[in-house]
Amino acid sequence: MKTAIATVSISGNLPEKLEAIAAAGFDGIEIFEQDFIAHDGTPREVGDLIRSMGLAITLFQPFRDFEGLPDPLRAKAFDRAERKFDLMQELGTDLVLVCSSCHPQALGGIDRAAADFHELGERAARRGLRVGFEALAWGRHVNDHRDAWEVVRRADHPNVGLILDSFHTLARGIDPDTIRRIPGDRIFFVQLADAPRIDMDLLYWSRHFRNMPGEGDLDVTGFMRAVMATGYAGPVSLEIFNDQFRGGQARAIARDGHRSLIALMDDVRREEPSAVPDLPAIPARSRAHGVSFVEFATRGAEAEALEALLETLGFRRSGQHIAKALTLWTQGDIRIVVNRESTGFASSAYAMHGTTVCDIGIAVEDAAGTVERAKNLGADPFHQPTGPGELDIPAIRGLSGSVLHFIDEASGLSDVWTVEFTRSATGGADAGLRRIDHLAQTMSYDEMLSWSLFYTTLFEMTKSPMVDVVDPDGLVRSQALEAKDGAFRITLNGAETHRTMAGNFLADSFGASVQHIALATDDIFATVAALTARGFKPLPMSDNYYADLAARFDLTPDMLARLRAGNILYDEDARGAFFQLYSRPYAGGMFFEIVERRGGYAGYGAPNAPFRIAAQKRLMRQKGIPKR
Ligand code: MG
Ligand code: MG
After folding, report:
1. Are 32 and 136 contained in the same domain?
2. Which of 91, 300, 479, 573 has its CA 20 to 30 A from that of 157?
3. Helix 543-552 and helix 557-566: axis angle, to 10°?
4. pLDDT surpassing 50 at residue 626
5. What is the CA(134)–ligand 1 centre distance, in A?
6. Integer Cα distance of 580 and 436 in angstroms
7. Cβ proximity of 477 and 445 under 8 Å
8. Same domain, yes or no, for 215 and 300?
């Protein structure tokens, strides 16, 4: 399978685009005419430049408003085509995309269009070129791939074929299985794009909101299964028009694109193996059982403050690393590692971000298989020299260069805590915290699609719809990703401005990272009592919040009083109830959350977030923590 991407999908000038596309591992490009025109170089030089980077020019696009015109417009359209053929020969590409006409004077008529394409095919054949016809979803007379196929069929010329684009088919709600009746060798090229489901004008939707397969809501997998079932053997190419991507980092966007294609074709292979018999197998999405540990890189007074907070949260200092300055804190199934090393990876993470979550351990079914899949998806493997007696735990780079370790039972990696840590004396009651409910990662809004793609292509996880969280100083978008059984949950919070709590944290920590860790209890009130006894100081909530709770929910006066006394936040969904308690911010805006889910409550307390954020900001202002 050859992969390609349209140059319009990536930001930068032509050489910058090409460099990013080549680095991401694509085999070829669709050259978007504007990108060529904007470049200062002859067509031959451009062709040589592209090939020197190891890329093929799989397609020249677009040629517009061609078919069905009355004379003299018709003759002019053929003249224009001849000029483009000249250019294609100079560039060194043999296929042109002709998109269905939007010309106000286009006459329509399937046979008229077919006759035009037959003649264009004749002219292309004389030069050894080929012509592909694509139905735009907003084409004047042809806006459905079934009609475009009928034009191509009647044109009856070996140099004229069909071009399919998942957006145009799926956005119009056309059943992709109708592609299965088209002969695969008559399909010259396939363009892929996903998009979020938004009810808007098709052209505007297509030009601004396309995204990578897996980032939107369209059934691109079903589309591609149908394409591959025809025996199609040409390139699989991305054509993404997206405002954010055009302004984004070329290399990151290109990498996301390549990742999306690898994951998509793997899904096609799994769902319809006979359609892609030659595709090499990669390990399946990894099944995550939960967060095995969270490691903080920290030093000095911040390390001491963090450990003091862990103590009031009921954690025990339960182990010390055999060779390194690592302390293990545990409670229930939760492990938190405090790393004070002054060399190695954690130390450089600290130097870069200050106190930060530098490493997350994820309990998986198969650690080696997870890394193998991640590598196929373009993730960077991570290695650090291991000392005597230490286990070599498979790892990759995650958010902002942080590390994700994968731990499984089958290969003995889950013994790391007894192998690498000496056990300290422990004792005393804990606070009833059982496991990590979720990790909340804060990032800039532009990074959210990248990271949701990263997680959903690597793990068996689904996305819930994005929600807006109102910060007094701006909007934060929040998206939850979770394993089907809820054992592994991550929330991505995208900040758009520095003035929000999340944005301020992002600026202070120089890049995306974990901002809060939510710890689950099975009895919030018992946990609150235990925490109070340990001197834990919760985030104080306002009386107004509790007055509003009384109005919104049918709570008994006793329940309301207990919530208010404990500074506990409350929410309900159709299934159950949710209780939340927050720590005060530490180390520049990080915090802990304590949650209890009752009756299968599925959310994250989003309705409470504005009040929690306001309370945090109030506290930070009182303490004189400067606000940008
Ligand atoms: Mg297209
Ligand atoms: Mg949370």
Report:
1. yes
2. 91
3. 150
4. no
5. 7
6. 14
7. yes
8. no
